[in-house]
């Protein structure tokens, strides 16, 4: 699913990745751990095409990451950043935003699909009628997660997936996402339960 | 019609006393704008007095070549002002801004002077130069506001932009909310002033024409047409500037380049 060979990334004079290689198979759940500033988010950003200046060979689903294929690469992924201060007035707008893009229009979820996934993530569908400032950070994180999952992409890139969640919900959400058999998940995380449930843990030093 | 009362230089000087108000306010609130205000006022005075002299000569000469050259120079100065007032890099943004300015004034000038006023020569100095001057002068602020709003917001809200891109948006789709906001910010004030025109504000050009002895009826019609021409020209200018500058402000992965802002 993902092949990274001899990756080199440096910002100014600081070397973030030096000859880094990684191979991830389809459906594998990979947790990237390490202290802040060690390049966890950088790896997710790289796979989403947000790092223009890198050296090495990066492939997702057999597609080479380069300027020509960037649109194809982005069709393989759903990406959820850590900082989710996305400015939408209503929860409905936030949730449906990706489904307004041409490529995702046919994926617009039915009411049943929405209520199913909301139930799995311990969310009430009534939230959709609220304003974004009326909901908690944890609810917002799960709503964005729901919309990412409904995009049905083979690869989910997710930064600190459970950072805003209470302990009781954390486990349920972790189990739900990491049990999706065909979904490859690359996450940057500090969450012990998430790390324990992942197939592979990579520590960046 | 009664001849307009001339203002002599002494009276003009007395008129300048009014500038004490903005200068005092800006000084009192420590805005750091006092020097800029004084320089701007002095520049405005010298430029307008010189323009008075030039225009007299250019109107007499009325050569298409000289008129076009004059407008080109005005466009260069306008583009320079826009880049300087925005926080963007001169090297990258001057050409797209200059080109967008030229295209938008060319289209609206030809339409207004050629099809509405039906001039035999749209480059006739008496019409072409002042109308283009009005267009350029009035669109500068829209372009500055729009460019700043657009690029600053993409930079500030990198996550929103990236979230769109990484979840299926084309570059155009990912940029759409930023374009929408830039247009709102740049044109909301213009829509508001257009809506109250004549009620509580009399536009400068019309006032000038009436003071200069024109029939108010004619002055009003020209003013209406000018406001419409300015609106079209400004929006065309903003859209083209963003369209052209998009090509240089983003890399091939559609990421906003880090070095587009002046330090």
Using DSSP, what is the number of strands of chain A? Answer: 9
Number of strands of chain B: 0
Which of globular, elongated, flat, extended, rod-shaped describes the shape of chain B?
globular
Oligomeric state of this protein: heterodimer
Name the chain pair with the biggest interface and residue counts per chain: A-B, 30 and 18 residues
Largest sheet of chain B: none
Number of separate helices of chain A:
7
N-end to C-end Cα span of chain A: 24 Å
- Portion in helices of chain A: 25-40%
Largest sheet of chain A: 5 strands, parallel
Q: How many structural domains are formed by the residues of chain A?
A: 1
Unreliable stretches of chain B, pLDDT < 50, 5 or more residues?
none
CATH architecture of chain A: 3-Layer(aba) Sandwich
User: What proportion of the residues of chain B is helical, as a percent range?
Assistant: over 70%
Read across the widest sheet of chain A, the strand sequence of neighbours is: 6-7-8-3-9
- Listing every helix as H and every strand as E from the N terminus to the C terminus, the arrangement of chain A reads EEEHEEHEHHHEHEHE
| C-alpha termini separation of chain B | 56 Å
> Which class of secondary structure composition applies to the elements of chain B?
mainly alpha
Name the structural class of chain A. Answer: alpha/beta
Q: What is the CATH domain class of chain A?
A: Alpha Beta
